[in-house]
Design a protein that fits this description.
single chain; alpha/beta; Quinone Oxidoreductase, Chain A, domain 1; 2 domains; 16 strands; globular
Length: 299
C-alpha cells in the first residue's frame, strides 16, 4: 500500500515541506494500518520543521495525533477490525494519508464526533492529563498562554477537579478563556500586577505553554515557594525551579478526554482546518502563533 507523506529534507520555513509517495512496508506485529481522515497540527511540528527542535535526521516526518479508519490489522490482534473508526497517538508520523500505529494507542471514535475534532485530541489531551497528574492535588493553578489546544483542555480538566484557574492569553482570547471556566488575564507589560489583582493569594502551581521570560518571572513571584512551576514549551529556562513536563502516553487518560468531549462536558474548538495539500499554509499559521484551540489537516 502507498502513502502520501509530508516530509522536509532540510530545516527552514514552510517552503521546505513537500509531499512524497512511499510504499509502506509489511504491517508489523501489534500494529494497525490507518487511512487517515484528520490529523492535528501542533507547535512542536512547526518547531521541528525550523530546526528549533532537532529530534531526528532527514528526511523529517511530522505529526503525533490522528483519526481515521483501520484498513489492515495485525492478525494476532483482538478487539479491532478492518473498518473500525479510531483516533489516537501516532507511531512514527501522522501527517500522511496512510500510517501504521500501535494498536495499544487506539481509541474508538465516538459516532457524534467529527473527524476534525477526533484527529486533534490525542497529543494535547494526554499532555494536559500529564500536567495535572504531575502537579497532584492543588486548589489553584496559573496557566500561561492558555488559549491553544493544551491550555484549553487543561483549564477544563482542572475545573473538573475543583481547581481555581487563572489563565493568560491575548486580548482577543479573553472571553474564550472565560467561557472555558478560567479567570482571564492579558499577557504583556504589567502581567504580575494583573494576576495579583484577580488572585491575591499565592498559587499552588503554574504551567507555561509558551516559554518566555515574562511567564517565568511572573510564576516565580506568584507561586508558593514549595509550589510546582512547570513548562511544556521545551525552551531554556532561567530558573531551576521551572520543571519541564513531557507527555506520558496513557490511553486511559485519552479515553477520559474523548468521553468528556463526546458527552459535551468539555468544549473542543478546531479553529482552522486545511486540506493536506495546503500543509505549508497550515504550518505557516502555526508559526505565527496566537492560535486558539486546535488546527487540523484533513484528507
Amino acid at each position: 500500500m502507498k502513502s502520501s507523506v509530508l516530509i522536509a529534507k532540510k530545516y527552514g520555513q514552510p517552503d521546505v515541506l513537500e509531499v512524497v509517495t512511499t510504499d509502506l512496508p509489511k504491517l508489523a506485529v501489534g500494529m494497525a494500518r490507518i487511512q487517515v481522515k484528520a490529523s492535528g497540527i501542533n507547535p512542536i511540528d512547526a518547531r521541528r520543521m525550523t530546526g528549533e527542535f532537532k529530534h531526528s535526521g532527514f528526511p523529517q516526518t511530522f505529526g503525533t495525533e490522528f483519526a481515521g479508519v483501520i484498513v489492515e490489522i495485525d492478525s494476532n490482534n483482538s478487539g479491532w477490525n478492518i473498518g473500525d473508526e479510531v483516533l489516537g497517538s501516532g507511531g512514527a508520523f501522522t501527517h500522511a494519508s496512510v500510517i501504521d500505529v500501535p494498536t495499544v494507542n487506539l481509541v474508538r471514535r465516538p459516532a457524534n464526533m467529527s473527524w476534525e475534532v477526533a484527529g486533534t485530541i490525542a497529543g494535547v489531551g494526554q499532555t494536559a492529563m500529564t500536567i495535572l497528574d504531575e502537579i497532584g492535588n492543588i486548589d489553584s493553578l496559573l496557566i500561561h498562554g492558555a488559549s491553544g489546544g493544551v491550555g484549553s483542555i487543561t483549564i477544563q480538566l482542572a475545573k473538573e477537579r475543583g481547581i481555581k484557574v487563572v489563565a493568560t492569553a491575548s486580548e482577543k482570547n479573553q472571553q474564550y478563556l472565560r467561557d472555558l471556566g478560567a479567570i482571564p488575564v492579558t499577557y504583556g507589560s504589567g502581567l504580575l500586577q494583573r494576576i495579583q489583582t484577580v488572585h491575591q493569594d499565592l498559587f499552588d502551581a503554574s504551567i507555561d505553554m509558551i516559554g518566555n521570560e515574562e511567564a517565568t518571572q511572573a510564576s516565580l513571584q506568584a507561586v508558593k515557594s514549595n509550589g510546582f512551576i512547570g513548562t511544556i514549551a521545551g525552551r531554556p529556562v532561567s530558573s531551576n525551579r521551572v520543571r519541564p513536563v513531557w507527555v506520558k502516553r496513557n490511553v486511559g487518560n485519552l479515553q477520559h478526554v474523548v468521553d468528556g468531549i463526546a458527552a459535551g462536558r468539555f468544549k473542543w474548538e478546531v479553529s482552522a482546518t486545511y486540506p493536506f495539500e495546503n500543509a505549508k499554509q497550515a504550518y505557516s499559521d502555526i508559526l505565527d502563533g496566537h492560535t486558539r484551540g486546535k488546527s487540523a489537516l484533513t484528507f
